[in-house]
Design brief:
The chain has about 350 residues and is α/β, with parallel strands linked by helices. It contains 12 helices and 14 strands. The mean pLDDT is about 95.
Length: about 350
């Protein structure tokens, strides 16, 4: 019988197999610590950060919790020696900083597993296909996150989670599998557990949390959104080309469609700033239309032109609340769904 007490809980030292997604810098110490303190596993976003910044971010989280945490890295690269060396240094920083888990995405985990294990960190990789899962298991990862096409943000998967998940569980064997994409309530978690998942990795639900470092209008739109409002596209490609993603419909998408969906270089307003946000040194930096960034609280400009990353699970997100309450709600709902059979 499916249960919230899964083997991955014992492996990581967590109470509940509920992981928050490390959605870039917006998944900061406050969010990760709140999820972990509530019994789940909070995951910091660290992509784009240098090794010393990752260590600093982990240290800031450690001041808020002693519970296990993860750190997310995008490992998409041209696989030059310089790229691999930088990514290896970032994985080293995760282990050296004292995080228990490196959560990798969008690439081959093989070059980083030994690096992480040598520093006491486990490695999970998010995948979008059975072939990716098989390769990851063969490479020696400690866990696989199966991402369905319903997911928000950048989407590796092309298959609905409920079709992909049992196949990934099958090829993973004894390697733990988490489910991600289209899940934001206890019924979804219970369904994933019944299909063999040992936990879930939730992004959209934790976007609508008090601790997420995200513009309030972004959060409000996630709460107001419905699954049919989300669109899988490749429109926001400045900074990360050729990477499908799911967003809520907005002005930029509508104007692009009205123009006949022109290719990059011919899109409405291309190259023009839609607003400004603060750079690392505090200066105002322009945000160019079609950029792939996250709408943070320091953004000043036209919110309706920026990408609102959201999965189809927005239909199950009804309010913005503290992350700890979200975890508590999810546990209660899951236990009720499992008891109902």
């Amino acid at each position: 019988m499916a249960s919230l007490d899964t083997p991955v809980c014992k492996e990581l030292g967590i109470r509940y197999p509920i992981f928050s997604v490390g959605f870039g810098r917006s998944a900061g110490p406050e969010l990760a610590a709140a999820v972990s303190n509530a019994g789940g596993c909070g995951v910091l976003g660290a992509s784009g950060l240098e090794a010393h910044e990752i260590r600093d971010r982990i240290a800031a989280t450690r001041r808020l919790t002693t519970r296990p945490i993860g750190v997310n890295l995008i490992i998409d690269s041209d696989e030059t020696e310089e790229d691999l060396a930088l990514l290896r240094a970032e994985v080293e920083a995760i282990g050296d900083g004292g995080a228990e888990l490196a959560v990798l995405f969008w690439g081959d985990p093989a070059p980083y597993i030994e690096v992480a294990h040598a520093r006491g960190a486990r490695v999970f990789i998010q995948v979008g296909s059975v072939d990716e899962a098989r390769h990851a298991v063969d490479a020696g990862v400690d866990g696989v996150i199966a991402q369905g096409v319903e997911a928000g943000g950048h989407v590796r998967g092309t298959t609905p989670i409920w079709a992909l998940l049992p196949e990934v569980v099958r090829v993973a064997g004894t390697t733990p599998v988490l489910a991600s994409g289209g899940i934001a309530n206890g019924k979804g978690i219970a369904r994933a557990l019944r299909l063999g998942a040992q936990g879930v990795s939730l992004g959209t639900r934790f976007v609508a949390s008090d601790e997420a470092w995200i513009h309030e209008e972004f959060k409000r739109r996630v709460v107001a959104g419905r699954a049919e409002d989300t669109v899988l596209n490749e429109l926001y490609d400045v900074g990360w080309p050729n990477a499908p993603h799911r967003t809520l419909r907005n002005k930029t998408l509508d104007e692009w469609e009205a123009a006949g969906r022109p290719p990059p270089g011919q899109r409405p307003g291309e190259g023009q700033p839609i607003g400004y946000r603060r750079g690392p040194s505090g200066d105002r930096q322009p945000w160019v239309r079609y950029s792939s960034g996250m709408l943070t609280p320091d953004f000043e400009g036209d919110v309706d032109c920026a990408p609102i990353w959201a999965g189809q699970s927005v239909s199950d997100v009804h309010e913005i609340k503290p992350a700890a309450e979200i975890v508590t709600d999810l546990v209660r709902e899951t236990q009720a769904a499992l008891a109902a059979g």
